[in-house]
Design brief:
Blueprint: H1 2-26, H2 34-47, H3 52-69, H4 71-77, H5 89-97, H6 101-130, H7 134-139, H8 141-154, H9 160-184, H10 190-197, H11 199-209, H12 211-217, H13 241-244, H14 247-262, H15 268-280, H16 286-315, H17 329-332, E1 339-340, E2 347-348, H18 350-353, H19 356-392, H20 395-436, H21 440-461
Antiparallel strand pairs: 1-2
């Protein structure tokens, strides 16, 4: 028994450590979108043959670590660390103006740490409640994806524009699928996924290559940032998150994490804003309200990402949430390793390879390991790290590295044809994202509508 358990624990610990360190550092770099970074790296880990436990631990540690350190540039520099940090920006800026950005940072990361520990067991519990209905849901998967796509689109910023944008996007996927089938005698999956995930990046690269588009990206001189002072407000080595937050803030953060863990079908950004407003409106004092909103909002970013991954992954095996349909997409569908049958909706992914208790144990293990690494680092080294990142790390170099990774994976799946499919989907998807706010979650659901729902609709009217 122990001989079998030791390699599993080794993979879980090793991959969780890699994810925590890698994405803990990447969270310090502003503008590093989760879908364009965590998703491709998770896909690469899967394609390299890492066992399921290692893949799961890597992913859980990555999202937990990034949503701790993304608060550093958000609070100390006034620029969002990633997409999910954007709702924290206004409160962080107001606290900067009050002269307490260090308090904003510590409230945010303490709320994230508490919420991550709450979200894992609650998500497993909610998944267990849904599990008896998994077969019924899988039987009508095509229609559920159609309904979920419309729901997620309506709940996005673009609302009905996103719903209507699904039609040409689905048609694009169908056309490219037909083309690849005629050229390669098979359809592609990973290339579509990469195109959607890195769409905004691909769109910006095309804009930079155009003389007209380049003008919109040009900057006059170097960007100037004001780095807040480094102030330590505690005695001893390291305070507990439960001491950084007062009792009321702990209760509100826990309440927001519990609610957002259950409502897994809604947009993580929308839930972050909503939870911050709902709980913040109950507090009268400006300072207390702002610091509470920092802890509640960053806690919600952790809870939604964890719950929206675990609930559909454990209960159903299909990516039926905005998070599952974007950042966590490789855990559900990463051919040829993890697959979803486009005809029947049958799955062969982490849902089938891990037991519920493994999701709970290794999920908590990965989250705790990530927190043990990133929480002390953010509490004590945030100022020094933010200064070094802004002075020494080239954002363009990071973009170039992920562009290179994109090409390697595409060529692996289907050669030049796959690369052009990714560029096409990325250009169109990036345009929809940048110009019309049709986010990647909507686009991923559109892909599943094309491969799962449309065949059912055609068969119905044939």
């Amino acid at each position: 028994m122990m001989e079998q358990l030791i390699p599993v624990l080794g993979w879980a610990a090793g991959m969780a450590l890699i994810g925590a360190v890698g994405f803990g550092l990447l969270g310090l770099v502003s503008g590093t979108d989760e879908t364009a970074t965590i998703a491709p790296m998770t896909l690469l880990v899967i394609l390299l043959g890492v066992p399921p436990v290692g893949v799961f631990a890597f992913f859980m540690a990555s999202i937990s670590a990034k949503h701790i350190t993304h608060a550093v540039p958000t609070t100390l520099l006034g620029i969002p660390g990633d997409t999910m940090a954007a709702p924290l920006l206004r409160d962080a800026q107001l606290l900067r103006e009050l002269g307490v950005p260090h308090i904003a940072l510590r409230k945010a990361i303490s709320g994230g740490a508490i919420s991550a520990l709450i979200a894992v067991p609650l998500a497993v519990l909610f998944a267990w409640v849904l599990t008896p209905f998994a077969d019924a849901i899988g039987a009508v998967a095509g229609w559920i994806f159609l309904g979920a796509a419309i729901l997620i689109a309506v709940l996005s910023k673009s609302r009905w524009a996103a719903v209507f944008a699904l039609v040409p996007f689905v048609m694009l996927v169908l056309g490219l699928n037909a083309l690849t089938l005629s050229l390669l005698d098979r359809t592609l999956t990973v290339s579509f996924f990469l195109g959607i995930a890195t769409g905004p990046l691909i769109f910006d690269l095309f804009m930079a290559a155009s003389p007209i588009g380049r003008k919109t990206l040009e900057r006059k001189g170097k960007r100037q940032f004001e780095l807040a002072a480094d102030t330590r407000t505690w005695k001893g080595k390291m305070p507990s998150p439960f001491k950084v937050l007062d009792r009321r803030q702990v209760a509100m953060t826990a309440g927001a994490a519990s609610i957002s863990s259950a409502t897994f079908v809604f947009s993580p950004v929308a839930m972050t804003v909503l939870m911050g407003e709902v709980f913040g409106s109950r507090i009268k004092g400006s300072y207390q309200r702002l610091t509470t909103q920092m802890s509640v909002k960053n806690g919600t970013t952790e809870a939604t990402y964890i719950a929206e991954t675990l609930i559909p992954l454990i209960a159903i095996g299909l990516p039926l949430s905005p998070m599952a349909a974007s950042v966590a997409q490789p855990l559900f569908n990463a051919p040829p390793v993890y697959t979803i049958d486009v005809e029947t909706g049958a799955t062969n992914n982490l849902h089938d390879m891990l037991e519920p208790w493994q999701f709970l144990v290794f999920g908590l293990f990965a989250v705790i390991l990530a927190l043990l690494i990133t929480y002390p680092f953010a509490m004590t080294q945030a100022h020094r790290a933010a200064k070094w990142i802004m002075q020494s790390v080239s954002h363009e170099a990071i973009v170039g590295a992920f562009a290179g990774l994109l090409m390697v994976i595409c060529l692996y799946e289907g050669g030049v044809v796959a690369l052009f499919v990714t560029l096409t989907v990325g250009l169109v998807g990036g345009m929809l994202n940048k110009l019309f706010a049709v986010h990647t979650g909507v686009q991923f659901m559109g892909y599943y509508v094309a491969v799962l729902s449309v065949p059912g609709i055609i068969a119905l009217f044939a």
